[in-house]
Amino acid sequence: MRKNVHREIDLSRQPFKRRLQRTMVRDWDLYLLLIPGIIWFLMFCYKPMYGLRMAFYDYNVFKGMKGSTFVGLANFQEFMSGPDFFRTIKNTFMISLWQILICFPAPIVLAIAITEMRNKFVSKLTQTATFLPHFISVVVVCGLVVNFLSPSTGIINLLLNKLGIESKYFMVKPEYFRGVYTSMTLWQNSGFNAIVYIAALMGIDPQLYEAAIVDGAGKWKRIVHITIPSIMPTVVTMFVLQVGKMVKVGYESILLLYKPTTYATADVIATYAYRVGIGNRNYGLATAVGLFEAIIALIMVVGANRLSKRVTESTIW
Amino acid sequence: MRKIEILNVKTTIIEKLKKNKANSFKKNELSNHLLESRGEKIFNVIMIVLGLLITVVTLYPLWYTLIASVSKPLLVESGAVVLLPKGISFDSYVQAAKKDGFWMAYANTMFYTVFGVLVNMAFSTTMAYALSKKRLGFRKFFTLFTVFTMWFSAGIIPLFITFKDFGLLNTRSGILFGFAINTYNMIILKSFFEQVPDSLEEAAFMDGASNIRILTTIYLPLSKPALATVGMFYAVNRWNSYFWAMNLLRDDNKMPLQVLLKKLIVDRVANETEAAIVTAQSLSSPTTVIYAIIVLAIIPMMVAYPFVQKYFKTGLTIGAVKG
User: Fold this and answer.
1) A residues 256-315 lying closer than 8 A (beta carbon) to B
2) In this predicted complex, what is the ipTM?
3) Is 0.90 surpassed by the pTM of this model?
4) Statement: A83-312 belongs to CATH 1.10.3720.10
């Protein structure tokens, strides 16, 4: 009946083949719109994936893929038996751990503080100020860090000197690296990451608070018994996401901050792959390292999604 | 389901705001009379102090950069400048503006940002629109095809080799088209398009309009806020990115600002810190010039910040609800 009236929008009840034929004919231009995107994904996402074959070759820079010899798992063996293997894995894990312990809870506390502020002006001001650093580029942020921590002219060391403490070589000594990196990301991302929690907090039914007030619950009790349980699903989801991303630490900023003297604590899998590949032109080994990282990342993300399904009964995607 | 959630969040926010206004008197009365009002008051004061403290700590690095850039170099390097500028001088800016290639790099970044965002939006809207239509055959497959790249990517070296194979090394078009789509942004656009009710396009279909026409005349005007949000995401990314420009470009006259900044403000000082161990004396470094360069580099972002902030927030909350 409807078929005769006008062109149908919902074809989903018809058999698949017929449906496909119809949409192919009627919506040919919809596929036309899809083509540029598909081509882009093939060229810049799937072509590189095909290029992962390099991981199993002794890649020859000049002759390309054809002139390279197949070496099986030799590149992986080289990576795993080398001294850098445990160091990079340990550093990647440790930096992520610091992120989870310090940078993960900070936005939650910040969001609660911002929404609990009665003074709307201060609340707005705090939010605007903490959100700001996220929009400053990695290069400028790292530039600020390096300049502030300079032993001769950096403000931090100048202030330390005033307190009678000798200048510290923050960027040179490996023991400072994780602290420096963690503080930097804390400064840059806390306000940004708080937005999600603020949205969740705004969604809490105010009647809950009113009922609690009538029951005689103080500020603190209301936060513990209403606010925190209400945003728990969001917190769990974000936590699972964070764990899923553990392998992917911010190599762009680490590349700018680390130096040979701090490799002991700063060199992560991605920066190692970058040095081996772009620096030493050992493409085969670098690709193997990258593939190793990507596979672990994939396992972590899929595992995290499974976990979130079980815990919050909602998938992330 | 998800759509309803978004609407719910929006309405609850609005309701909450309304209620807050209406109930503010009532609430105050309640808290003043029924509860330990002194405790509440102390709590409020503590929160205000905390908020101001967080604000000051967050903004101080930027404030220091600004005051150091307009102070006399010697006073900065001796640690005399801490809270306010001293011995005001704009020499640092004059020197910064004279740096080799600074304005060239600035212009390049403008170019990459403006045209890059156009490329981004062209590729992302077309694909997002097609994927948002339930009648598209193999829709699930195509969606998985794009989403999979968020979970698994080949990494730095294979992508670098890909650019090389396509002859895009050291080309501006490589930068523009090589990063045409950010999967996450594309998915956000797709979910925005999905929220537009089908009934709107049904009428257009009856009039015999094509899909492309419907996209340009109905969907694009309707989703201006969404387009602005995603455009803003892309613009900030374009403006701030350095990594691939650094690796793919060779010529100085193609370099964006961030790559030059890396040389001027990160590498130079990094070398100095190493040299400082050896010689244990400060080089006569124009620290103030570095700060002036930083100020010049972040001015556009700071000017755009109010707009950026507004759109980012809406985009993020929707992204978060959508997951």
Assistant:
1) 256, 259, 261, 270, 273-274, 277-278, 283, 286-287, 290-291, 293-294, 297-298, 301-302, 314-315
2) 0.84
3) no
4) yes
